[in-house]
Amino acid sequence: MPVAGAPSKSASFFTWARINGIYLFSVYAPPRLAYVEFSALLTNIIEGTWNRRPLIVAGDFNAWATEWGCRVTRRRGTILLDALATLEAALLNTGATPTFTGALGYSVIDLTFASDTLAPRNTSWAVSELYTHSDHQAIVFEIATARPPGPTMRQSCKWNAPSLDTECLSVMMANAAVPPGPTEEMATRLMAAITSACDASMAKSSGRRRRCAVYWWTSEITDLRRSCLRA
To answer: Which residues contact 141 (CB under 8 A, 6 or more apart)?
Structure first.
């Protein structure tokens, strides 16, 4: 996917890119950072996310907390939780599968956070078993694409039912075509066809006279249609 945006200057221990409308922040917080330095890094990240939504913040934070599967919560984990509370981001990590396996043991220190508006679109998050040539495991997660905007609602969608011209409605619906495709797209096309048919065959509740939506519908066709139905 093409990168639509990136920082104009580099920052220490994190960077970001805008891809497919989502701001992706990649973080590496070395274990050598003092608590003050770790807090400063998180402050810089939060400032970097200002007015950048929706967003994902992911990386190696070297922070421990029971919220993401660690056995204990340590000070860096508490600092991280407090900082992300101001970011209004949700943790995507699920389970307690280690994301890091080293000579001295294993831990869950690779974390993924998403802004509150983006988190509901997360469909999966998992620690991959693929070999990465690293002591960190690959993290695989999926974000559903944004739903296409629905049809614009008109100020009035009420029709005068007694004015219904059943022949006109039947012809309009008989000529309505909904090609195969994604379910939501088919539903949108079907609703558009029904709305057009109702506009053509009924007057609005305001009492205005209905107008046929197709130029070729005439009173002569209406009479012929009625004759065919009676035959």
So the answer is: 92, 112, 122, 124, 125, 126
